[in-house]
Amino acid sequence: MTAPLAQLKNVHVQHRARSGGILSRDRVHALTAAGLTLTPGETVGIVGESGCGKSTLAKVLVGVEKPTTGTVEFGGKDLWTMPPAERRAAVGTGAGMIFQDPSTALNRRLTVRRILRDPLDVHRRGTPAEREARVRELMHLVGLPEVLADGLPGQLSGGQRQRVAIARALALSPRLVVADEPTSALDVSVRAQILNLLLDLKERLGLALVFVSHDIQTVRRMSDRVITMYLGRIVEESPAAEVTRSRHPYTRALFSATPGLLDPIDPIPLIGPVPSATRPPSGCPFRTRCWKADAECAESMPDFTASEAGTPGHRFRCHHPVDDGQSTHELVTQAAATAVTQEAP
Ligand SMILES: Nc1ncnc2c1ncn2[C@@H]1O[C@H](COP(=O)(O)OP(=O)(O)OP(=O)(O)O)[C@@H](O)[C@H]1O
């Protein structure tokens, strides 16, 4: 078996909540008991509604965010028990991150050359001449003409800026790149170019790629494996080719709202809004909106179950999973009936 590139073990991230700009005693449960293993060369997509913890998971994976508890391992070594200098070196060379909006992620006062040289200088990679050569190589890799080396981010188009951000993430030749909504701030016309560039780089450089997006169809197209998150928890993992046969009711509901993914009918209706991340429900956090929930769901969150169909890599955390092969139409009917019962006096 291939040695994991990065591993999260029982990771929790909690933040102090703010109320009217003032820190309160409440804790936001941004990530709860997250476990994840990334192997070299794979692409993992992360999906879920806004605020479910996708960015937190991404930041923990690249060592930008320290977990409140739990371990993050790079190449089998616990990142947060390393001496700080060793950790900076491991993070710098192990993983690169591409953020949503290149306009804010790039220092607007630095030229493209300086932005790309910076990580090489900080990590003392090669001689000055070799660093200059690496800058040219990086620009070539992401399809930026060399004449732009002395340009400032503000003089570039949105697509060019994101290419600079991608080149910067690749500067130290990491084996893992995490892209957090890398196209959502871009014009629709350049989104496909940036996604194709990422796929191309992944193939050429043998990168593992973690791809966070609201756009499930894009995640499905880009990824080998899809992870569904709900209120800070990973609730399902499945091979991208199998997502239409997902077993967790939340994954099914999320996918039913994606045009063209499941049988074309109305989305599965859920009960009420997403609960607050400062007071997540007991047991399974999805139970308050789930048409299948019962007392058992309020008591505990089950551990992962492997799919009975035996699909390798497909697992979910649910007491009452959707039957394999159950149509979305049936689920819509079931969920609608539950919603009516709950609304009845
Ligand atoms: N620094 C912080 N302080 C307080 N709460 C935070 C902080 N960072 C994130 N959160 C909260 O943690 C939860 C998870 O946030 P996160 O940004 O990881 O979600 P997300 O799924 O990436 O959302 P989106 O899709 O909107 O970017 C949210 O409730 C968010 O408000």
Q: Characteristics of this structure?
A:
12 strands; 2 domains; 33% helix; binds adenosine-5'-triphosphate; Rossmann fold
Q: What is the CATH superfamily of the largest domain?
A: P-loop containing nucleotide triphosphate hydrolases
Along the chain, the helix and strand elements come as EEEHEEHEHHHHEHEHEEHHEEH
- Count of DSSP-assigned helices: 11
Largest sheet geometry: 8 strands, mixed
Total strands: the figure is: 12
Radius of gyration, taken over Cα atoms and rounded to an integer in Å: 22 Å
Bound molecules: adenosine-5'-triphosphate
| Distance linking N and C termini | 56 Å
- Low-pLDDT regions: none
Class from secondary-structure proportions: alpha/beta
What is the beta-strand fraction?
Answer: 15-25%
Protein name: ABC transporter ATP-binding protein
InterPro entries: AAA+_ATPase, ABC_transp_ATP-bind, ABC_transporter-like_ATP-bd, ABC_transporter-like_CS, Oligopep_ABC_C, P-loop_NTPase
Domain ABC transporter: 11-256
GO molecular function, one term: ATP binding
Structure description:
By secondary structure, this protein is an alpha/beta fold. It folds into two domains: 6-222, P-loop containing nucleotide triphosphate hydrolases (Rossmann fold); 244-343, no CATH class. The chain is 33% helix and 22% strand. It is built from eleven helices and twelve strands. The chain has helices spanning 54-61, 84-94, 102-105, 112-122, 128-141, 158-170, 188-205, 216-222, 249-256, 295-299, 328-343, and strands at 6-19, 22-38, 43-47, 69-74, 77-78, 95-98, 176-180, 208-212, 225-230, 233-239, 305-306, 315-316. β7, α7 (188-205) and β8 form a beta-alpha-beta unit. α4 (112-122) crosses α5 (128-141) and α6 (158-170) packs parallel to α7 (188-205). It is globular, with a radius of gyration of 22 Å. It starts with 5 loop residues before the first strand and ends with a helix. The mean pLDDT is 90. Adenosine-5'-triphosphate (ATP) is lined by residues 15, 28, 30, 48, 50-56, 277.
